[in-house]
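If you are new to this repository, start here. Below is one unmodified record pulled from the training split, so you can see the exact layout before writing a loader.
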Amino acid sequence: MTRFAQKFLSDGSQVKPYFWQYNAQSRGPKARRLCSSMAIEDSHVVPDFADPVFCTDLPYQLAHSGKARQGDGNDPRPDPQKLLAIGSHIWRLETQFRSVAADVPSDSVSRRSTNQAKNQLASKICRLKKKALHSANKIKLDGLKQEHGKHLLCFTIVNISAV
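And here is the target side for that same chain:
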């Protein structure tokens, strides 16, 4: 087990939020919604994942150069190992950020380069936290789908046995 995993799992009295909890006051996407609202028969069942960039049966087509990036965000499968790896990377970058922030240079030229290094690290940490939140949401959604399936199975068994 990595040092990050040991630290993360052994910290029972953790006051700060988990590393994947990113920007709790987010207001959502600023761009226009790609998917139209659907009529949902069962509000507890999440419809299957459809990537709007690579889906051909949508009423509209997104314009892209044919080399649209198919990254990790398009993969709907949960991957806890990936979340742990992202958390480990964030932890290393935060340690590096603290070491850079501890150095207080006296002249303005080195202060400018230190601030630039801190800004680069901070933006990379921010991007990784966003990625970690996305990965954590996929894990939560998968768990909720499994739990919902188990509950439906129990309800059908109870209904069959009651009849």
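Two things worth knowing about this chain: The CA atoms of residues 113 and 159 lie 69 Å apart. Residues 108-162 form the longest helix (55 residues).
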